[in-house]
Design a protein that fits this description.
The termini are far apart. By secondary structure, the protein is of the alpha+beta class. Strand 2 and strand 3 form a beta hairpin. It is globular, with a radius of gyration of 14 Å. The protein contains five helices and six strands, in the order ααβββααβαββ.
Length: 124
Amino acid sequence: MSAIADSLVLEQGYTLEQVKLGLKDWDIQPILIGGRQVGEIMLRNNELHVAIVKGERLKLGKCQLIADTLTKLLTEKGFLVTRLFKGDKHRRLIEGLGFVHTHSDDETDYFWMNEYKGGKHDRN
């Protein structure tokens, strides 16, 4: 499976059939470090989601890959949006990168970014 499919099935509890149906309209691009795939970007219009292979998550935090990827996408698209389930443990990371909370509904928090602001992962 892909990094995104693994995350959705193994960590979020979706079935493989649900994942295949849910991902069919998304552009999924690999995240490569030194020729090795460490995750994937899931992009539809300006909405961005990222999945990092579980064993690579701590290692990835020390590289420029996130900064380079976000800067490139912001240059191409002008802005990015993402969303998290309420209470998601990654909210602090998302906001640290420069995503700003715009609104919420019963289950989801929505975020917007128009410039990359960096985060802890940029420090060595």
